Amino acid sequence: MTDLFASAGFEKDAPSPLAERLRPKTLAEVAGQDHLLGPHGALTRLIESGSLGSLIFWGPPGTGKTTVARLLAHETRLHFVQASAIFSGVGELKKIFEEARARRRTGQGTLLFVDEIHRFNRAQQDSFLPVMEDGTITLIGATTENPSFELNAALLSRARVMTFHSLDVAAIEKLLERAEVVEGKTLPLDENARVTLAAMADGDGRAALTLVEEIFRAARPDEMFDAKGLSEIVQRRAPIYDKGQEGHYNLISALHKTVRGSDPDAALYYLARMFDAGEDPLFIARRVVRMAVEDVGLADPQALVIANAAKDAYDFLGSPEGELAIAQAVVYCATAPKSNANYTAYKAAMRLAREHGSLMPPKVILNAPTKLMKSEGYGSGYAYDHDQPDAFSGQDYWPPELGRQTLYEPVERGFEREIRKRLDYWDKLRQERGKDR
Questions:
Q1: Burial of 81 (0-12, 13-18, 19+ CB in 10 A)
Q2: In angstroms, rounded to a whole number, what is the distance separating the alpha carbons of residues 217 and 219?
Q3: The predicted structure's pLDDT at residue 354
Q4: I want to staple 292 with a disulfide (CB 3.0 to 4.6 A). Which of 188, 304, 311, 418 is the partner?
Q5: Residue 326: count of CB within 10 angstroms of its CB
């Protein structure tokens, strides 16, 4: 079948995708990675040193990881071999290693580029270690996932991680300009539509060029698209967000910290990012409840009520109406006074409980349901607080071996300011009545 199509001219005439035709021929043409490839970039320095060492390229799709690996092989005069963790097994890797050893005996080094390296299991990752150590291969692994979580510590200890950034608007614009040169025509987009196209690409250079191809195909002679027209002719790319992977955790972390930092606008932005990517609203609602108790606490006890009500409102309304209730809870928590005093006190209490074991509470506050327990002093001398002046006895409730501890320290913000006054008042009474005994 291959010969048939070739003889009919299909192979010769088959057009290459624009992204392939625009693949950089030199490192200087790579867009958006100046921190690696600029005059003082990390990879530039490695090339100048004459020794790469093994590397892990970490970054989103479409940022040039494969292209840079190919160009590095050319710059360092290493034989380039590419493998994919999706399609390669241990058998194929062994064959690659044997060929690299044979090549090394003739004086030729090998750069092995492994795409999606995080998809190899731990045992497969370990298979790289001997050939990395003895110089059989220079490994460059590419991953979209955080190497700290997905790669063996042993592998990471033998490789340097290079972080590739999503392409910014300026880098995407350079790609659009190159595409116009290659195609010999201007993109039929007004200024706003051009900015919108860059946003649609979501930092992915390959995606940007794919969208450019769609626009060129769709445009009629002398037609010009505005932002609305652009949205109608191209499908918007789904945001880079996997609910089981790092994007999920990055955004929920960003939401939590912007709420803690009292920035309702940023909090709403990250909330919208997650809703737009299809995150489960109940997952977010649960996290907002956590924010209410961890970061707002008793500075505004109503925050927990509002957060729980938002969860119930979403359960009652469903999507898309219920999301507004979660947004309201996010804004409420972001604008509430903040205190982690209760959270800190709870952690301190847990630490005390673990460190000091099963200490007996003072017998004075223990019930005595049997004669034996009464004879042992259980409940003896207990002062019923409601019978005392100010409904406060000031008794010591701590195990004698531990002594009185201070765990909860309310802040001078919000409702905790009032709690602070109460605690100070009770402490004063406790000291006064302690002198009377």
A1: middle
A2: 6
A3: 86
A4: 304
A5: 22
Give CA–CA dist 436/431, Å, rounded. 9
Q: DSSP characters for 258-281?
A: HHHTT-HHHHHHHHHHHHHTT--H
Cα–Cα distances in Å, from 407 out to 4, 36, 282?
81, 49, 33
| Mean local confidence (pLDDT), 144-150 | 85
Rounded-to-integer distance, Cα 362 and Cα 377, Å: 10
Tens digits of per-residue pLDDT, 358-380?
Answer: 888 998 888 988 888 888 888 89
Q: Is 224 helix (H, G, I), strand (E, B) or coil?
A: coil
pLDDT value of position 60? 86
pTM of the model: 0.63
Say which CATH topology domain 246-335 has: Zinc Finger, Delta Prime; domain 3 (1.20.272)
Give the residue among 137, 133, 142 at the shortest CA–CA distance from 84: 142
Interior/surface letters 237-270, b for 16+ CB within 10 angstroms, e for the rest: eeebbeeebbbbeebbebbbebbbeeebebbbeb
Q: Where are the domains of the chain?
A: 33-163, 169-233, 246-335, 356-436
- Residue 436 above 70 pLDDT? no
Backbone angles phi, psi at 248, to 5 degrees: -60, -50
Q: Which of 261, 269, 325 is nearest to 296 (CA)?
A: 261
| 3-state SS, residue 81 | strand
The string over 98-119, giving b where at least 16 C-beta atoms fall within 10 Å of a residue's C-beta and e elsewhere, is eebeebbeeeebbbbbbbbbbb
Helix boundaries (H) for 88-163? 90-105, 122-126, 129-133, 147-150, 153-157
Q: Superfamily for 33-163?
A: P-loop containing nucleotide triphosphate hydrolases (3.40.50.300)
Cis peptide before 281 (omega within 30 of 0): no
